[in-house]
Design a protein that fits this description.
The complex is a heterodimer of chains A (about 80) and B (about 290).
Chain A lengths: L1 H26 L21 H21 L10
Helix pairs in contact in A: 1-2
Chain B lengths: L1 H5 L2 H14 L6 H11 L9 H21 L1 H17 L7 H30 L3 H21 L10 H8 L2 H10 L10 H11 L4 H28 L7 H28 L3 H20 L1
The chains are: A mainly alpha (about 80), B mainly alpha (about 290).
Amino acid sequence: MRNERLLVLLAGLAGVALVVLAIVYWVEPAGSLPSFFPGYQAHSSHVHFKHGLAAVLVGLACFVFVWFRTGPKRKPTAG
Amino acid sequence: MILAALISYPRAIVLGLVQGVAEPFPISSLGHAVILPRLFGWNIHQNDPYFISFLVATHLATALVLFGFFWRDWVRILKGLGRSLRDRGIDPDDADAKLGWLLVVGTIPAGVAGDLLEGPLRNVFASATSAAAFLVANGVLLLAAERLRRRAPQDEADDDVRIARQVGWAQAFTVGAAQALALIPGFSRAGATMGGGLLVGLSNRDAARFAFLLATPIIGAAALLKLPELMGSEGNGVRGPALVASACAVLTSYLAVRFLMRFFETRTLLPFALYCIAAGGAASIYFAVS
C-alpha cells in the first residue's frame, strides 16, 4: 500500500515535470536550453516543437496512470 | 525546374506504389525508398529535404489507409478508452479499453525514440549500402521471431479479446520500443511489431493486426508533424509528384493490408524473411561491385 502511494506520487511528479519540460521546449530555442537537455544545440534558434509534444504526451500518460490508480478499487471478477 | 525533374511523375508513381506495399509488408518501406533510387541510378538521396517531404506525403497516405481499414476498430477502441477514463480503471472484460491502452503504452516509446533518434540515425545510416545490409538483418530478425515464437492457445473468438488477453503492459511497451528499429532504413516497423507479437504468443494474424493498429498513430502523427514542410518551401517542386505518389500508395497499401490480413490466417513471416535476405543480399553485392 505504501509502495502504491509512492508510485502514484512519483508518477504525478513526473507528469508535472514533463509538462514543465514541454513548456521549456516550446518557449526556448535549442541554443538557450540547458546543455544536458536532448536537442541542445549551441547558437541554434530552432524550437524543438516535437520534443515538447512528446514530453507533454508522456506527462499526460503519467496523469492517466495517477487517475486510474487513485480511482475506486475494483473487486476481482470470479472465475 | 530542377527539383521537379529529380522526382518525375513516373518515378513518383514507382515510389508511391512501392511505399504502399512496403509499409504494411514487413520489408522496410524506408529501406526500399533508399535502395531503389540507387539501384535505378536516380539522383535522389534520403536526406534531401524535398525527398523527406515527398516521403511524408506517402506515409500520410498509408496511415490514412490503415486508419480507414480499421475504422470500426478505432471507434470501438476510442470508446473503450473513454469508458476506462470515466470509470477510472480498465474493466477486465473490456477488451477495447485494454487494447486501447496497450496501443498507448506501445506508442509512447516509439514516439519518444522517433523524436529523439530520427535525425541522428538518418544521418548515420543514410546510404543505400547500409540499408541493403540492414534489410538482410531484418530478414534474419523475422526468421528468428518465427523460430522463437511462443505458441499460446487461441481460445477466444474475437481478435481484439485475444490480443488484449495475450499482451501485457511490459510486452506492449517492448513491442512498441522495437518500432524504433524502423528508424534505421532496412529495418521494418511492421516486422519489428509482428515479430514482437509472435514472441509474446500472438498468432500471425493477431500479430499483424496489433502491428497495424500500433503503426497507425505513430506513422500518422510523424507525417502530420512534417506536413508543414511539404506545404512550405521544402515542398516546392515535389507537391505534384507527392500527390500522385500518395494516390498510388493509397491503392497499394489498401490492397496490401487486405492481402496480409488473409495471408496471415494460415501463413507465416517466412516468405518476407527470405525476400529481405535475398533482396538485401543481392543489392549489397550489386552496390559492392558497381
